[in-house]
Amino acid sequence: MERTLVLLKPDAVQRGLVGTIIARFESKGLKIVGLKARTFERSLLEKHYEVHKERPFYGNLVDFMSSGPVCAMALEGKDAIAVVRTLVGKTNAREAAPGTIRGDYGMSFSNNLVHASDAEDTAKFELGLWFSDAGELSDWTPADLEWRYSVKEEL
């Protein structure tokens, strides 16, 4: 099983899409192992997006992400990183395929509703930032695990 970070950005919160987006991940069969929502400290956002610090959009991105509440989630599942990235769709929501979260609900390149870790090392780093206390993450087994996966073949 793999874990990944998903951030529902301020535009998703402001538009009342948090429940709808979470339902997409849960319906796919991903398990929520961490969840919190609030307006996060600017220092956390700067550290999270530090890889983009030299890029022209960095300041606007940090401003946007600190403009209101964000819902941070740790999701778990088989190949969770790739599965989440597929569900989210292309960064530019106008180019995202119908059926993806951005394709169905977005129209912007910058205000694109969701951040999702792009690789295993990134997910590990980002989960450590957003869920730095191990007690914020829950280890549990869904009662319907055998209906989500072919346990004998896939797990």
TrEMBL record:
GO terms for molecular function: ATP binding; metal ion binding; nucleoside diphosphate kinase activity. ATP binds at K9, F57, R85, T91, R102, N112. InterPro entries: NDK-like_dom (IPR034907), NDK-like_dom_sf (IPR036850), Nucleoside_diP_kinase (IPR001564), Nucleoside_diP_kinase_AS (IPR023005). The active site is at H115 (pros-phosphohistidine intermediate). GO terms for biological process: CTP biosynthetic process; GTP biosynthetic process; UTP biosynthetic process. PROSITE patterns: NDPK (PS00469), NDPK_LIKE (PS51374). It catalyses: a ribonucleoside 5'-diphosphate + ATP = a ribonucleoside 5'-triphosphate + ADP; a 2'-deoxyribonucleoside 5'-diphosphate + ATP = a 2'-deoxyribonucleoside 5'-triphosphate + ADP. Its cofactor is Mg(2+). It is an enzyme of class 2 (transferase). Gene3D superfamilies: Nucleoside diphosphate kinase-like domain. Its EC number is 2.7.4.6. One of its GO terms (cellular component) is cytoplasm. Pfam families: NDK. Residues 1-138 form the Nucleoside diphosphate kinase-like domain. It is found in: Cytoplasm. Keywords: ATP-binding, Cytoplasm, Kinase, Magnesium, Metal-binding, Nucleotide metabolism, Nucleotide-binding, Phosphoprotein, Transferase. Homotetramer. Belongs to the NDK family. PANTHER family: NUCLEOSIDE DIPHOSPHATE KINASE. Major role in the synthesis of nucleoside triphosphates other than ATP. The ATP gamma phosphate is transferred to the NDP beta phosphate via a ping-pong mechanism, using a phosphorylated active-site intermediate. This is Nucleoside diphosphate kinase.
